[in-house]
Design a protein that fits this description.
Helix content: 40-55%
Largest sheet: 3 strands, antiparallel
Distance between the termini: 40 Å
CATH topology: Arc Repressor Mutant, subunit A
CATH architecture: Orthogonal Bundle
Number of helices: 5
Radius of gyration: 15 Å
Shape: globular
Amino acid sequence: MVATEEESLDDLPPSAKLVFKVLEYNGPQTQKGIVQESMLSARTVRYALERLENIGIVDEDVYFADARQNLYQLNGPKTADADCGQEACTAE
C-alpha cells in the first residue's frame, strides 16, 4: 500500500505515535521489545507498525539474532548532515 501525501505522523492514532517515540528513544527494536517498552498490546503494536510503514517512517528488517522476528527502525527524513560528504561537513 502506498501512502498518500496527505497522511503524516500527525494523522496517526496515539498508539502509532507512541511506537514512533519508543523507536526514536530506544533505536531499533523487535516487536516484542516495543510491546515491553510501550506497554501496548501486541496487536496494537502490529497495527501501529503497519501504519508507520505505510507512510514510510519505519523500516522492517531481519533480526539476525532470531530470524523469526523482525527489527523495526525509524527511516527518518534525511538531514543536511546526512546528505553532506565528509569535506562539506567539516567546512561548516
